[in-house]
């Protein structure tokens, strides 16, 4: 890593916790993704990367760094605990939560970004079916603290969304008065039948009824509709 002095993006995903390897990376990293747990070694390395603006922590259960560190961080993905800890005191514009079961945490840190959060994403496995309800409940609670979100994204990490999920998302949209873009995304391993055109049109009408400001909807398969 010492030779890659012009490296700007780094994805470091290895089994175990080997943050010591990162000590060899002295490049000015802007985008960083890792499966490492958040330990003192990772925290120490991150303090030397003040220009990181995208941080993706796929497995970390905690995050403990003061706002003066990572001062340019604007995009963060991780567990609810990780994301909520990273937001406070930083210019976070985009948050994406990886959910696994109900979230009982206080979400008020979402309102402590130094700028307006305009993108809210949630990644979860829709099976079993109650995970979809957990997701809806979580996003509803988030809306109290980030009502000016312009883009709302749902990511299915394994299986596909149920037909019911799209219907129960619709009333939720009224919570986000500035919403312009709604997105449903499947992982590469997510198998589901395409939504037929008639159903898509019905859903678009339902979405627009609950939020007249909505302008673009993307269904799985990158099927995008623009609403005039």
Automatic annotation (TrEMBL):
Q: Which domain of life is it from?
A: Eukaryota
Quote the protein name from its UniProt record.
Uncharacterized protein
Q: Which organism is it from?
A: Rhizoctonia solani
Q: What is the lineage of its organism?
A: Eukaryota, Fungi, Dikarya, Basidiomycota, Agaricomycotina
